[in-house]
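Assemble and predict.
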Amino acid sequence: MPLSQLTTHTLLSLGKHPLSGRTRRAEQDAKAFELAAKLGQCLGLHAGNYQDADALKSFAGMSIAPVCILEIEQSSDPVAALSAYFKQTKSDIILTGSQAERGESSGMLPYLLGKSLDLPVINQVCEVEQTETGLNITQALPRGARRALSVKPPCILIIDESAPEARQTAYGAAMRAEVGKLQGYNEADTDAANFNFEDARKKPKRMKKIKAKTAADRFKAATVSQAKGGQVIEPKTSQEGAEAILKLLKEEGLVKTN
Amino acid sequence: MLNSLLPSLLPFLVVLTLSLWVIGAIRRVNMWRQGQDNPVAFFPAIKAIIPRYLNDLHHVVERDKYISNTHVATAGGFVLSMVLIILVYVFGLAPEILGKLLLASLAMMFVGACFVAKRRINPPSRLSKGPWMRLPKSLISFSLSFFILTLPASGVISADAFGWVLVVILSAFSFMGLTEMLFGMTWGGPMKHAFAGALHLGFHPRQDRFNGGRSTGLKALDLNRPMVDKDAKLGVEMPADFKWNQLLGFDACVQCGRCESMCPAFAAGQPLNPKKVIQDIVIGMSHAQDATTEANYYGSPYPENQGVEVKDHKGDMHQPIVNGLIEPETLWSCTTCRACVEECPMFIEHVDAIVDMRRFLTLEKGQTPGQGTQVIDNLIATDNPNGYNPTHRMNWAADQNLPLMKDVKRTQVLLWMGDAAFDMRGQRTLRAVVKLLRSANVEFAVLGNEEKDSGDLARRLGDEATFQRLANANIATLRQYHFDMIVTADPHSFHVIGNEYGELGGQYKVLHHTTFMNELSESGRLHLKDDLRGKVTYHDPCYLGRYNGEFEAPRSLLKSMGADFVEMERSNFRSRCCGGGGAAPITDIPGEKRIPDMRIDDANATGAEIVAVACPQCALMLEGVVTPRPEIKDIAELLVEQLVIQDAAESNKQTPAEVH
C-alpha cells in the first residue's frame, strides 16, 4: 500500500481544565492530533454540537489538519454516529485519547467503535511510524517499559499519557480556521437515556498516623523514601545473583518465561 | 580652455552630488514606505526635527561629553558649510563675506573631524568598523580641501595663487568628501544616519517621547484583523510588516553600540546584541538578496554559545526575518528592560521591534520557546502563570482579614496584589505592605479572587490575545467599584495597568507602593525610625525606573530610614536589569553568565549588606543568586522593620511599641 494514500482521523473532544473548569482542547486528544501530523492525510473529527466550533478552533490552531464537527444532538450516541460515519468513509487509522475530560468519560469509546467497525484497537500508544508495509507502533507499558508492535492498518490507536507533548495552538491560525460540518448521523443513545447522572465526589483519604516524636523524625519520614517490598540479597555465587535478577525480570514481565 | 573650465568644476561637482542626494533621498523614502501605514502629521513633524535634535537628542549624546562636543563641531560645521558652499559656489553670492564665514565653519568642521579621527585610532569594541573607519578621512578631506579652495575664492589670498594642477587635485579631494557626505547620506553609508536620523526625530512612532515626555507602553494589536482579512497577520514576519516609521528608525542607526554596552543579555553572553538586531533588519530591507548580514556588518556579533549557532543570514523586505535574518533565540533573550532604548541617541525603539516579532512567533507560528507555551496555557486556563487554582489567590491573606472590594464597593486605595499572592517570597512583601497601610490608617481593600494576572507576562511573550482578555476582564471587574487610586507592590502590574490598560478603556491613577509610602512618610502618616543598620544599596526595577521614571521615592524612603545609602555604578536610568523581565526566565535562553549574578556583582562592588528592591520579580531573581551575597529586602519589608506604631492612647509616648 503506498504511504501517501493512508487516511487518518483523529477524534477530538472538548477538555475541561481540572482547576478552573474552563473549556480547553482535551490534552490527550491534542497529543493524538500531534501524532497524526506525521501520518499522511488527516482530519480532526468531533462528534457533538456545532455550537462548540469556536472551542474546537484550539485544535485547528495547531495547523495540523482541518477540523470537522459531526453534528449530533445531545441525546445521540457518538459511538453510533462515528461508526456510521466510518462505515461510509474509509479511514486507515483512527487516533483517540484514552478518556474524555467531560461527559461520561468512561474511556469506552475507542473499544466500542472498534467492536462496531470490527477493527483492532491498540492502546497505550506513545509513538507511531509509517513503514512500507504498515505501522511501527511503540506501546507504553507500566514502569517505563516499551513494546514494539507492527500493525497493518486499518486500526484504532489509543494514545498514552507518555506520547510527545502537543504543539502550541497559534491564535491567528485558530481564528482564521473554519470548522467543517457533517450532518445526518443522529442515532439515539438508548443506554444513556437510562443513566442517572450525579456529581462525582472525591474519595475520602485516610490520614496518615504520625508516629514521629521529634522534628528530625518527621523530616526523615517526609524525605526518605520508604522501601516497599524487595529484599537485600547477598549472593554467595554469581549464579545465585544472576538467578535472583532473572527472577525479578520475569516477575516484571521484561523477560518471557518458558 | 582648461583655465576657463576650472572655475565651473567645483560648482558642477556640488550640483552633481546634490542631484544624486535628491535621487537617493526619494529612493530611501520609497523604501521606508514599503512598511505599514502609521500616519504622522507632516508639517508638525518637520517642524519638530530641529528642537528635538537640539534638546532631546543632544541630551542623550551628551552622556558621552567627548563625542557630543565632537558632534556639535563636525555636524554643525558641516551643515553650515554645506549651506554656504551652495550659496557661494552654486549661486556665487557675496563670496567676500560668505566665503570668510565658510572658512570659519570649515575650520570648525575640520577640528571636529580630527577628534572623530582620534576616537577611531583605537576604537572601543562597541563601535562598528568597516566603512565607519573611513568616515574621519572623508570628513577631513571635505573640510580641508574646501578650506584651501575657498581661500582664493573669498579673497584671503590672490585668486590665481594656485596652479591648475593643485586645483584639480583639491577638487578631487572635495569630490571625495562630497560623495561621502551627500551621495552616501541617501544612498547608504555612514552618513545615512544624518538623513534618516533627522526624519526619524520628526516622524518617530512614539511622538510622546520627546520634550521631557515618556512613552513606554506597548501598543495594542487589532486581534480581529485575521477574521476580517484572511491575509492579514498578527505581529511582524518580514521587514515590510513593520510600520514605515519603524523602518525609518532602524535605518537611522549610527552603530555607536551604546545599546550593546548597556544590554544585560549581551553582557551575559546570550545570543542578543541590540545593535545587530537593528542592523540585520536594515540589511534585510535595504540590500539585494545576495547580501548576507555577515558581509555587511562590521560591529560585534551575537555572542555564540551552547548550541545556538549564529549562521550566515540573508533576507529582504518580503522574506521572513526569523531564521532568515535573525535566530529566534536572539528575540527571546531580551528582558525588555529598555536599557538600549534609553541609551540610543537616535531614539530607536528596539523593544517594540522585538515584541512585534515575538507576537508573530507566538500568535501565528505557535513557537513560544521554553516554558512559554505552558505559561500561556496556564494564563488562559487559570489566570495566573503557574497554573494555581484561581480560587486560591486570597489564601495568603487567610489571617489578614482584608476588606474585599466585593463587600465594601468603595474605598480610597485598591491594593493590587499581583501574582506575588501565589508566591511565598512575594507574600512576605504583601504582608509588609498591608501592615504599613494599616499603620498609616489608610482605607484600603483588595479584589481578592476577582483579581487576575495583569497580562504583562502574556504580552511580553507575544500573546496579545491573552493579554487583552486578561486586561479586559480586569477592567470589567474594576468598573464595578469606586476607588481613588490603585497601589501595587509589583512594577509590572503598575506599568501595565497605568500605561497599557488606557488603550483598552481602563484609565486609573496607579501608584507604586514606594511612591505611596513616600507620600505617607512625608505627610507624617508613617512614622519611621532613622536607625537602619548596615550599608544599603537600591536596585531600580526597570518597569518602575526606566519605564515610569520613579527613581526618587524609593531613595527618599531609604534615606528617611537613616540608611547608609550607596549607589551601584549602574543605577537610576542606567540600572542593570535583574534578568527577570520580558518573560526571559521563562524562555530561558542559555548564556555564559546569569544576569542576576552580574547584578549581585554590581552590589558587591559597593560593599552593601542589603540590596533594597521594589519588585517581586527582582526579589526572586536576586535571591536566587548563591550566597554569600547581600541580603535582598523589599523596601516595604525594610519600612516595617523601621516602623514606629503610634500608641493608640498616645499616653505613653516615650516607649512606642516596636513591630517585627
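The first strand of chain B starts at residue 410 and ends at 416.
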